Predict the structure.
Amino acid sequence: MLYCGLDLHAKSSTFCMVTARGRVVSEGQVASTRRGFRKLIDESSGKPLLIVLETSTRAEWAARTLESLGAEVLIVDARKVRLIAETKHKTDRTDARILAGLLRTNALPAGIWRADRQTRELRELMQLRAGLVRQRTQIYGKARSLVAQEGIRLGARALCSSGGWDRLERRRELRASQRRILAVLRESVESLTEAIEKIEQEFPKYLRRKDVQQLLAIPGVGPIVALTTIARLGDLARFRNSRAAAGYTGLVPSERSSGGRQRRGSITRQGPSDLRRVWIQAAQAALRMRHHPAQSWARSLIYRRGRSVAVVALARRMFRWAFAVLRDGKRFDERLVTAAR
């Protein structure tokens, strides 16, 4: 068995290949293409080859390509490797050597979970939609900032309709130059909205899935929350329990305890930010509902700790409900949740 550390980049990648005893067999650079990776595989002279990559945008594609060429591939979290292999002399060659050495000595953190094709497609769809929504929100912010210079204050949903834009553009306080800018911003919003609607046309085939329907039965959970959760969680078996899954969202409190004293701080914010964001939104929606299984508990927490803390705690609780529903393959039962409080 040979062990290879591969420092992956867009155009070319640096590799270091070593034996089980640490002797360097080959090192250098190859193009970050299928042909380049084939050249890398040829350096192993037919021996079994285990390659390690750090997480990046191209890591999954590179791993699939290398596996199709006969190598075994491990992808590890780049942040965790950085903590293990801190060095003052950082080059691509050094990184490849460090990766190879850590792989050979089994000193690397566990490899990340790799999603199947269907999960990757759903994840890409949800990430694209989230990106377009962020762009649209930024444009709303620019429009609000522009008209605020003239003392105009807009409601929360004032720009979510054509009528709202029409009324704004007719305001007498606005100068001609500001009207022209608003017209450009409006055109951008309409273009982004059209793109978002086209993406959402892909949703029905996913919404018919049993696991998505199970999530939609939870009060406060809508299609975006359900689909983002399915796209991010993937194989539930990789989590020990709902607490571990909640840790993956970054919604759990950070902790620095020692000497018998427990110190907890703000949430860790580790894991996918989009998953954390949609569950915060779900919790906010739940608090606006007239009847919700956790409403009395959340209201009590708002009184004691404030709304921000309560929203995060409710988001964490609701996510754990969702995980339990998916894990057990059962429909959400409000009576069981109410009885357990």
